[in-house]
Amino acid sequence: MYIRYEVADKIATITLDRPEAANAQNSDLLDELDAAWVRAAQDPDVAVIVLRGEGKHFSAGHDLKDRWPSAEDITLEWIYQNESRRYLEYSLRWRNVPKPSIAAVQGRCIAGGLLLCWPCDLIVAADDALFSDPVVLMGIGGVEYHGHTWELGARKAKEILFTGRAVTATEAEQVGMVNKVVPRAELDEQTRALASRIATMPPFGLRQAKRAVNQTLDVQGFYAAIQSVFDVHSTGHGNALSVNGFPILMALDEMKQKIE
Questions:
Q1: Which residues form a coiled coil (predicted)?
Q2: Could you say which of 14, 95, 114, 208 has the lowest number of CB atoms within 10 Å?
């Protein structure tokens, strides 16, 4: 089991519980996480959902050793089917859960980690949080749920993609990606306080408010952009396969260094 699920005082707390691997996301973790989101969505006793990570880091992203075929055997079709299900469809489903959600982020939030916090309605970041998407190093233009432009603005999104550098919690707050930055020691306490305040609001009003904002973003093109850019993402994998095998498998050591 890689996920802990608890409900108290109308708040469902979903915890990524793989701290020894910096909460890297293997297939089992993502499947368990999706089941927890669905459970919280369907539970009438849950008003607010909190997503958090156990340990030093929120999430180091996808576990690149997880069930991947060898570089000789991997195909673009396999990559597309696996990623469209676990990386795109899951994130969109979590985004559209009809209840408010809050991500509490500390330490590193790398690449696939963004696919966990960006679908949440609010983000509370510890002052040590760092957000990054360095997959251009692998010949890919960004992670599968490509919310970069919406979350960061066009020029900041290009900067972090072009350079691979991390965005600090303070920078993220300045551009509106993060709602609040708090001391690391107070992250859970302040996130829960925010969740508790939201939980006192009428559930139907919360549902309608979330729907209104999400639909506004969709009218502006969010949903269509996410879908179309996923296909662009897949061409990066295709190029990687045709040029020199599968660079993701070759870049493991470099990626590991970024979370140490």
A1: none
A2: 208
Q: In 28-187, where do the E strands start and end?
A: 48-53, 101-105, 108-110, 122-126, 130-132, 167-168, 180-182
- Spell out the domain ranges in the chain: 3-257
Give the number of C-alpha atoms closer than 13 A to the C-alpha of residue 222, restricted to the C-beta side: 18
Write out pLDDT tens, residues 135-166. Answer: 888 778 888 899 999 999 999 999 999 999 99
One-character DSSP codes across 217-249: HHHTTHHHHHHHHHHHHHHHHHHHHHHHS-HHH
Q: Please name which of 176, 170, 56 lies closest in space to residue 113, comparing C-alpha atoms.
A: 56
Contact 252, 64 (CB under 8 A): yes
Q: Cα dist. 255→3, 60, 108, 111, 164 in Å? A: 24, 9, 12, 10, 11
Name the token pair of 55: 């340990």
Architecture per CATH, 3-257: Alpha-Beta Complex (3.90)
Q: What is the pLDDT of residues 197-228, one digit of tens each?
A: 999 999 999 999 999 999 999 999 999 999 88
The answer to whether the beta carbons of residues 147 and 118 sit under 8 Å apart is yes
List the structure tokens of 58. Answer: 């929120």
Q: How many residues does the chain have?
A: 260
CB atoms under 10 Å from CB of 150, counted, come to: 18
